[in-house]
Structures
1.
Amino acid sequence: MTSINWSEWGRPAPISLTPVTGGLINESFRAEFDSGEVLFAQRVNRSVFRDLDAIEQNLILLRASPASVLAVNPVSRLDGSIHDAEGWRVQPWIHEAAQQASAYACGQFWGKFNRLLNERAAPWKTVLPDFHSAALRWEQWTSVRQLVPHEYSELKSELEDLAPMFLTLELKLIPAVQHHDAKRTNMLLSTQGFRAIDLDTLQPGYLGSDFADLVRSMAARRTEDDPKGNSAEPEIVRELWDGYINGWPDAAAHEGTMLRMPAYLSWVQALRFAADAAHGSTYYRIDYPEHNWVRAQNQLELVRSLLKLTRFTA
C-alpha cells in the first residue's frame, strides 16, 4: 500500500489501488473509489526531482495559464496545494481513446501547447538547471574524455568536431518555457482531445527544445538502443514542423534556428551517453558493457541525418 493520506484530498481510501507500469522515474497507481471515481496517484522521485517546490509552483502556474486546457491538471488538496510532504499528488484518470495520431497532429498539439505556455509572462521556476544545455554536457564530457577507450576514438573525434557548431548555436537560442519531454507518449488522447502529461520537467528553457524532442522520438527510424544505427524520416520531420507552426504560427519566424534543434539535442544526447560510458555507465541503465557506446553512436548517426535534412550551416 502507499503512504498517501487520501483525506488530504477530501477522499476516503480507495477500494482498489493498482500499480501503473511503464514510467521510468515516478511511482504511479490507478485508484478506484466506491463512488465510481477513478484517479491517478503519483509520487515524485525526489532523488531525481529534488526541488519539489519548483514543480509545485509550475503546476500551479500552469493551472492559471491558457495552456491549462491542454494539460491534465492535478487535483488540489484541501489546503490548496498539489503535493503532500512525501511528494504524492493526485490527478484525474484519463481514459485514452484508441486512435492513432498523425505526425502532423502531434506537431500541431505541441506547437499550440508551447504557444499557450508562452502567451504571457509568469514566474516559472527551473526544476532541472541546464537540462537541455550543450554547454553543461560539454563540460561534463571534458572531465572524462581522457577515459575513452582507443576503439571509440573515432566516435570521440566526431563528437568533438561538432562541438563548436552546437556550442555556438546555444549562445543564439531564444528563451522559452518548454515541456522538455515532448513526445507522443506524453500526450493523452481523451474524448476532449489531446492533453499533456508528465509535467515535472516543464520549466524555462530554449525555444525549439520541445520540437527537437518530438523529432527525436517520432522521426527516428530506430530506437536509441539499436546497434544498427539510426537516421530520420524526412517526411515525418516535415509533417511535425508543418503541424507545429500551424499550432504556433509565430514560431515560423524562427525556422532557421528551430530546425537545427533536433540535431543539437541529438548531439547533446550522444555526448551524455558517451560521457556516461567513459565514466563507467553509472547513470544510464545498461544491458551489456558497450550499451552506452552503442547509444552514443546511434544518436551520432541521427545527428548526421538531421544535419542533412535541415541543411544546417554554422
Note: The longest strand covers residues 27-32.
2.
Amino acid sequence: MTGDRAGTGAGTAAGTGTGIPGAPDDARSRVLVDAAQLAAMVGGGHPVVVLDVRWALGRSDGREQHAAGHVPGAVYVDLDTELAAPPSAAHGRHPLPPEADLQAAARRWGVRAGVPVVAYDAVGGMSAARAWWLLRWAGVADVRLLDGGLDAWVAAGGALEQGAVTPEPGDVVLRPGALRTLDADAAAALAAGRDTGRPGGVLLDARAGERYRGEVEPVDPRAGHVPGAVSVPTSGNLTADGRFAPDDALRTRFAAAGALDGRPVGVYCGSGVTAAHEVAALATLGIDAALYPGSWSQWSADPDRPAALGPEPGA
C-alpha cells in the first residue's frame, strides 16, 4: 500500500441492508450474525456462503479441524495461503493477497454476487475477521462474522457436518479499496496525532498488552510498539464466551482510547490479522477504521522505524 486510501464512509464500509431474514438494519447487524439467524438461513434454504477460517498462530491443523466437524456447507479457508500473500520483511507476515489471487480464491469458496457471506472460527472471530475484512475491502458488502463462532453454533444446537466441502464455483468480481488502509508512513502520522488533510488521528495497537509494552516479542524482529499508538488489545472486544461485547462496553473501551471523538482511526497488530477484528468491533459502533496491513511485523523489520517501550504511547 502506498498511503492512506480514503474509504467510502462508515455507512458504505459497513454495507447496506443485512441480507439476513428478520435481522435489524443497524451497524452491529451489518457486521455480526448470531447462530440462530445463521441456522434459519442454512435450514431454510436461503442462499448463503459459509466460510470456516479456523487458524491460530503456530498451528496448521485448521483443515483437519474442519474435516472433523463444521457448520453444514461451510468451506474451509486457509488463512496463510488464501487470505495472505507470502511473508516478507518488506511487507510483513501476512501481506494482502494480489487481487487476482483473492478473486480466484473467493470464487473457489463459492462467493457469488448478491449472496451473503458468513465467516466463523473457534477463537471469537480473531481469524475469521481477516476474511470479513478482506472481502469487505474487496467490495463485497454483505459479509458477516458468526458471533461466538463454532462454539455458539454448537451451543445453539447446530448440527456439525464432517468431511471436505467443495462448492459450486462462484462468480464474484472483486474491486479492492472499499475499506481504508494505511502504509507505515500513514500509520506513523496517525500515531503522532495527525492525518493528511484532516486534523488529529489515533492509532490503536490491537496486540496483547505485554507485546505492546515490549516485555515479550515471540515472532517479530523487535519488541515494542509504534510510538504514539494506544494499546487496545483485541481480546477486550469479547466476552468470556467468545461473543462480541455489548455496544456500551465497546464504546467505553474505544472512547477511553480516543477513537470515538471524530478523529481518523487506524488499527494494527502483529501482522494485520487480529487488527481486522478490532476494525470489525469499531464497525459495530459505526466507526470506519483503517487497517495497517503490514502492522508490527513490517514496522519492526525496518531499522529506520523507531520502537517505543513501556505502558504509555511514547513519543
Note: The radius of gyration is 18 Å.
3.
Amino acid sequence: MSRSRNWARLPERGSPLALWLIRAIALYLGRPAARALLYPITLYFLITAAAARQGSRLYLRRVSGREPRWRELFHHIHCFAATVLDRVYFLTGRLDYFRIEIFGGQTILDQVASGRGCILLGSHLGSFDALRGVGSTLRPFPIKILMNVEHNRALTRLFEALNPELARAIIPIGRPETLLAVQESVARGCLIGALGDRVAQDDKTVCCRFFGQETRFPIGPILLAALMECPVILCFGLYRGGDRYDVHFEKLAERIALEPRRRQEQLGVWVQRYAERLEHYARLAPYNWFNFYDYWAEESS
C-alpha cells in the first residue's frame, strides 16, 4: 500500500458516543480530572491500536537512531491524547487554562495589518488549534480552514458542535467550489489554514529529503499559494507538556512565482523548504509528531 493511502484507510478510533463522553468529561469534570484519565486511555490505545503503535515505533526509531522503549511509545501517544483533550478547550474559548509563548508573532501581525490574505501552512506536528490562543495574546485574525471532512467524521462532527462559528469557517477540500472559496477568502484578507504533511489518494506530489530519506509531499498548498499570488506563513503549535504551548510563525515566501517550463522543479524547491522546516520543528519537539502510520513506507520498501 502506498503512503498516500496509509493514513486515509486507517479506521476511526472511537465511536461518536465515546467522543461525546470525552467532551463531557473535559467540560464538566475540568482539565485536571480529564488529564488524569488520559493515562488509562493512552495505555488502552498503546495495547489495542497496533497500526498506530507501529507507526510511533518507526518514527521514534528514525528520530533517535535506536529502537524506542515502551515508555517512549506511551509518552508519544500520551502527547497526542493531551492535545486532543486540549482541543476541546481551545475550541470552546477556555484559553485561561494555558500558557502560550509566541515566536515570530510580528510576522502574523504584519500580515493581518497589510489586509492581504495568505496561506497559513501547518502540519500534523503539535496542535494547529493552539493558534486560537494567539488571538487572546496578540489580536484576533480572520482565518478559514481547509479540511478533509470525509475522514474521521465523528471527530469532525464533535468539534463542529463545540464551535459552530469554526464550522462555518471550514472550506472542505476536493469540491468544485473549493478553489473559488479560497480565492474569495484571500481577497477578503483571510488567512487560509492548511496542513502540508499528508498525501491524500489523488494528490499530486514531489519527492523531498526528509529525516534522511526521500519522501513524497503534496504540492497542493504551495500550488494554491502560487495561484492566489499570496504569501505563505508557516505555523507550528508545539505542545510542551502540562499547560504549555509554543507557537511559532515564520514566513516561507512573500510570493511564489512559477515559470511554466520549470513549474515542477520550482514546486519541488518550495516543498523541500517546507519539509526542512517541518523536520527542524519535529526535532525540537519529537513527541509532537502525530502521523501514526508508516510515514516513510518502510515496511513496503
Note: Residues 3-288 form one domain.
4.
Amino acid sequence: MDDTGTDSYDVVVAGGGIAGLTTALVLGRGRRRVAVVDAGSPRNSAAGHVHGYPGREGMPPRDLIAEVRREAAGYGVQLVRGTVASAQVPDAGPGEVRLEDGRRLAFRHLVLATGLRDVIPDLAGAAERWGRDLLQCPYCHGWETADRPLAVLGTAESSIQQALLVSTLSDDVTLIVQPGLEPDAEALDKLQVMGVDVVRGAARALKAPNDALAAVVLEDGREVPCEAVFCEPGADASSALVEDLGCALNEDGTIDTNSLGATSVSRVWAAGNAADPARQVVTAAGDAYRMAVSLNAILLQEDVAERLAAPRQPAAP
C-alpha cells in the first residue's frame, strides 16, 4: 500500500472468469503481485457442466472457478470481491482503478477479462430454459442431447451451419426459419441431404410442461416438438469501463487486441470473451495463458529498464 492508502499491484485483472483467473495464476507463479476484481457472475453460470476441458470434463462451472481461485490464491494472488467502476491509465506512472464501493487499486498493467452477456431470443420461457434445454453450443451440449428430437432457431445467418452441425447428433432435427432469413437453394440442398426438416414461421414461446422442454410454439399456434433447442444468441460485450478507457473495438463490439492480447491503449490488455465471443472455457484459458506470458515479458523489460536507469555504485577496482 502506498502513502495514499491505495494498494499497488503489478497487474490488476478486471473479471474473474476462467480467462481472468488463468492470467492471474500464470502471473502469480511468476512472482508478480496480482489482484483479480470480480463480482461473481460468470457468463456460463446457467450451464450445469463444463465440457471439452481435459481433466475437468463434466465439472460444474462454479466448482471449476472455485478451484482455480483456490489455486491462484496459493500463489499470492489477491481476490477482490467487487466491480471496477472506472480506470485511469496515465502516459507514465501507475494507473489506477476505482471500485464501485470506492476502493482504489494501483497497477502497472490492467487486464480486461470482463466477458460478455448473451442476448437470448425474445421468447416466452427463454430465460428459464437458457443453459438447460435452450442451448447455443453443440460442442458443449451435443452429447447430452443426442438422439432426441431437436430444433434450431434460425435467428442468424450462422443458423444454417448450426443446424447442419446439430444434424450429426440426431436424426430428428428441425430448423425453424424466422422471417427474413430464408435459406438459399444451396443451403436448402445441404439441409435436405442431412435430413433437417425446415419449418417457416416466427417463434413465440417455449413450451415446457413439468419443467421439461416439449416444443417451440410459433406465432400462428403451430408447435415444433423438441426436447432441446439450439440458437445463436446475440452478444453484448459493451462495458462502461471499456468505453471509459477508449479501447478500440471490433465490429461485434468486443475489444480489439493484437496477437499478444494488447489493446489499443498502452498497458491495457484483454482476454477471454471480452476479446472474442467464440472462446470456450478451454480456449479462453489457453489464450489467457499465452497473453500472461507476453505480459510478464513486458513487465520484465520494464524492470530491467528501471534498474538500468537507476544510479549505481561504481564497480570496485
Note: Residues 52 and 139 are 8 Å apart (CA to CA).
